[in-house]
Amino acid sequence: MRINHLLFFLSLITLITLASCTKEIEKNYIIIGSTIDIDSFNPYLSTSLFTQDLLDRVYLRLATEQEDYKTFTPLLAKRWEWSKDSTQITFYLRNDVYWTDGVKTTAYDVEFSFKVATSPEVAWLNAEDIIRNIEFVKALNETTLIVKYRYVYPYQLTDINDVWIIPRHIYEKVPFSEWRRNGYFDEKPVTNGPYKVARWERGQVIELIKNENYFDKNYPKIPRIFVKIVPNESNLLLQFLNGEIDVLPSIPPAVAEKYENNPNVKFIKYPFLAYEYIGWNQRNQIFADKRVRQALSYGINVDEIIKVILRGNAVRATSPFPSIFWAHNEKLKPYPYNPEKAKKLLSEAGWKDSDGDGILDKIINNKKVDFKFTLITNAENLTRKEVATAIQNDLLKLGIKMEIQVFEFNTFMRHILNRNFDAVLSGWRVATKPDLATLFHSEAIKTGHNIVSYSNPYFDKLNDSAAVLNNLSQAKILWDKVQEIIYDDQPYTFLYEPVRINGISKRIDLKTVRMNSISFLYNLHEWELK
Amino acid sequence: MKTQRKILAIAISIILYLSFADIIIPFDPIASPDKQNLSNLPPFSKAYELTFETGEKIFVLNYRIYDGFIYYDQKFSSGKIEIKKLKKIKTLLFIFGTDNLGRDVLSRTIYGGKFSLIIGILSSLFAFLMGTFVGTISGYFGGIIDKILMRATDVFLAFPKLFLILVIVAFIPNQTIFSLILILSLLNWMSIARFVRAEFLRLKEMEFILALESIGLPGLRIAMKHILPNAIAPALINIPLMVGDIILTESILSFLGFGIQPPTPTWGNMISEAEKSLISTWWLPILPGILISGTVLIMNWISDITFESRT
Amino acid sequence: MGFILKRLINSIFLSFGIAIVVFLLLRILPSVSFSDIYLNPRLSEEMIRRIKSAYGLDEPISIQFLNWLKEIITGNLGFSFIYRKPVINCIMESLSSTLTIGIPALVFSFGVGILIGIQSARNRGKLIDRITTSSLLVLYSIPSFWLGIILILLFSYTFRLFPPSGLHSFNFNELNFFEKIFDLLRHIFLPALTLGTPPMAAIARFTRNTMLKVLSQTYIKTAIAKGLDQKTIFYRHILPNALLPVITLFGLYLPIFFAGSIVIEEIFSIPGIGKSTVDSILQRDYPLTVGITLFVSFIVILGNLISDILYSIFDPRIRLK
């Protein structure tokens, strides 16, 4: 028995030593927390936003997109010249950029990358725009590159800058058709950015270290970056608050509010190029009527949703262009919460509670139909579930019965793409070039993402002419009109534009940090420690 | 006799619970009267519902009456109101706190338990019926049919059950309570089938059956009337164990996000949602977890005492 | 020998049956289609078709099944979409994480379980026995995911004694040997405890029952009647006979640990088999899902086989069957 006690104490002591034993290494690093891992170091196979955020720190693009989403500053390209008719751009590349294996980065790499981007075998997610708009890319010599466009349009630089530049001498080794079945590119990625990949343990940690051969010897300032992957959100948050993690993207508003006064952390808020909406499927008889859709927009108390669920961390959305985007029409005011007006519009559209059961009804095709429908949304997004519940309560006050169905993401997407739903609560991330054709054009009803089957010939015409207009200020006038049409038709009820809240520890010098909708690591190489 | 009385008592309390769950809950489990002011209240919090003459209601966390006015505090604001305008004050007690949408945890747990229990009980009943069916056919016909059925049973038994259930549940769209029950019962009948078959084969050789056969009763009638009831009885012991097991499985599925979807609460998905905000609201997973454990415990205990009373 | 051979052939047959069922199941279920669609309004049907063809998903199902069988026979078990590697490599990588938690949990559950079971049986009927039996029943009924959450809440959030996630610290590579072991143990402690507790309770209950059965056997009673030394009776006669059935449990518990790992790895963010399963399902990487299900089925069959063989070695009566 005595031995038992001894054993017990011994194990207790070991436990306590275990628990208290942590060793510090030199604090010249920062740790970024993430709930998801990246999917590949091959940029053409990656799909997630987070992967792109990280890849942008290790691969150089031709130019850097600025925070106005319109202008570009030189990066790999020292400068560029437009041809007289503007269908061709000549890029002059830097001569002092080397891949991490010592080979020089040249225009031939860019030429090869273009081939990759447009290859059907690679099937890059963003390939379509590039294929449609760019005729060819040709390297004249190591530092001179010609990009020839099929026609003139405002986003020529955006498109060519979307092409990731990868080392030809590495990627050539594997035929395109093998790429999706080959883990070769993930083992020792060869890159040319301010950071290089030191290690990648799937699902655990990614380590980036300073690229000693980076062309600008002043950067990066912080020599080591760790990305710690912890799928569990609250777990991650705890580590952030404990100081074990220095940067944490996408913090829930309620948490940010609670820890606002914590001396060790700081929260950076910025508007995100995205919006949340409810799409009313017009294949459903109920939503085919414009007045009904307007009534629904009047009948949902979005301000309360923003206040209660998002703790004020959102801006009301009015159009498919977020308010920080240059094409946004700032004259449009959000639909105010006005249940009376909503009721009036509904009764104008023929919806009355004729049988006194509290639910509106209407005779459609000689059949009495109750105003009942199902709203679908995806399960992963906790906020959406809460928003859906709030909307359910609001609509009930109008005499509308809404059921909520929550699907796992892939199932959810299948429902959307098959147009198999009544109403959907979801969000779009907005591309930095304005084009609404994929969402609202009549041609996108069958195959594209016009999931609500919205059709308005006037919109189609205006959108088509606005999208190719080269003069952005003229285009803006057309875009304003386009948004007015959408505003009046309300194919979606635009809810809000989320505000991104990122946490950052006091160890990092805030003055050096810039975060924006392009990336929360936008200028990671310029960050400094205190 | 004592054992049977215990089982009866538990069965009755489960039935009572299932029929009265909706009535005894103090608050609405799906929607909160005031999302803003009642959210994230810790256990044993009190709140007050002030009803005005106009019929309007507000929810406050604190109030005091002073000089003809009633001063109140809400989560983010405070105010005062003339006492004359006030109609009544109702005290609300949230014993187990509220969640991030201002819903009472106790009510949700009681309400959600209904689904967990129904799924557990119905699935095991179906599984039992199926197992009995397969076992009886196998035992009655014997020969090649028996061989095929038992091989199939073996294949299903060799699967790691949770993996298989997870895969099937996750890949089936439009998950409803019924499809979940169906899947859970489809993957739990195997042991019952084996059990019933073995009993069936044993009974077939018993003297009283041989005697019945010798009087010339038709085989099917003997099987249905005399063998089956005797073969089923011992298999019944497995039911409570199975109910507990399925409730656990369901809660794991819900926890992983593949089971019943919110806003319908089940114990599993309540814990799953609670886990996401564990730091700020630690009290959310406590009660549902205790109730899952308690229910499974009772089921295991029943099977323990029935087993003991048989040996 | 004949018995073992027969069981072996039987197991191979079973594995093949399982492979067919798994594949058919996944292909027949209506919703299983490849979708690599993220919230990207620019992705068109054409792109989806291209991606599908890059993965060989546009071929008829019969051809896909044959291709897949070929993959099984070569030992690849197919090709993972998300990891771009043979499934077997993914499984082997995550297996090491799962075993890092699983083996300590296994040792814990058998070690502690057997000890408690023996103590409980020796004190049969006493207060201590009654307390142990009822607490074992409680432990046995607690869902492991809830136990995990409570342990995290207590030991990581409140007392900050153990890290709540992962298998090692981010600076693991820079630590010296002893620090590495410390670091690993710190990370393993909570998940292994969570994973091991319910089986521990089950094993303790089982051990207690077999102990009691042995105690009631006539030869033990004779030994006691003969007046043999208490210790001799216990270590020579009771213990070996009681532990034999417990050891055969080993094979049967392998699948339970794999099933448990699904939940534990999800809670503690450990990149093991269980987490791979859930991830592969969420990302629709069906070759990986199928591969893992198949692999774990093999392990279940293997576990049963080992159990049978162990039993037949220890208990000659079985062999006669």
TrEMBL record, chain A:
Listed transmembrane segments: none
Domain Solute-binding protein family: 72-435
Keyword Transport recorded: yes
Biological processes annotated in GO: peptide transport
Alphabetized UniProt keyword annotations: Signal, Transport
InterPro entries: Peptide/Ni-bd, SBP_5, SBP_5_dom
GO molecular function per UniProt: peptide transmembrane transporter activity
Gene Ontology CC: ATP-binding cassette (ABC) transporter complex; outer membrane-bounded periplasmic space
Pfam families per record: SBP_bac_5 (PF00496)
Family: Belongs to the bacterial solute-binding protein 5 family.
Name this polypeptide is given: Peptide/nickel transport system substrate-binding protein
Organism: Candidatus Kryptonium thompsonii
Organism placement in taxonomy: Bacteria, Pseudomonadati, Candidatus Kryptoniota, Candidatus Kryptonium
TrEMBL record, chain B:
GO terms for biological process, alphabetical: transmembrane transport
Pfam family for this entry, one: BPD_transp_1
Organism: Candidatus Kryptonium thompsonii
TM region(s), chain numbering: 7-27, 115-143, 155-172, 178-196, 231-260, 280-302
Protein name: ABC-type dipeptide/oligopeptide/nickel transport system, permease component
Top-level taxon in the UniProt lineage: Bacteria
Compartment(s) where it occurs, according to its Swiss-Prot or TrEMBL record: Cell membrane
UniProt record similarity statement: Belongs to the binding-protein-dependent transport system permease family.
GO cellular component entries: plasma membrane
Main location, first listed in the record: membrane
Membrane topology qualifier: Multi-pass membrane protein
Residue ranges constituting the ABC transmembrane type-1 domain according to the UniProt record: 113-303
InterPro entries named among the record's database cross-references: BP-dependent_transpt_permease, MetI-like, MetI-like_sf
UniProt keyword annotations, A-Z: Cell membrane, Membrane, Transmembrane, Transmembrane helix, Transport
From TrEMBL, chain C:
Gene3D superfamilies the record matches: MetI-like
InterPro entries, alphabetized: BPD_transp_1_N, MetI-like, MetI-like_sf
Alphabetical GO biological process terms: transmembrane transport
Keyword Cell inner membrane set for record: no
Major localisation: membrane
GO CC, any one term: plasma membrane
Record localization: Cell membrane
Domain ABC transmembrane type-1: 95-311
Keywords: Cell membrane, Membrane, Transmembrane, Transmembrane helix, Transport
Keyword Transport: yes
Stated family: Belongs to the binding-protein-dependent transport system permease family.
Protein name as catalogued: Peptide/nickel transport system permease protein
Species of origin: Candidatus Kryptonium thompsonii
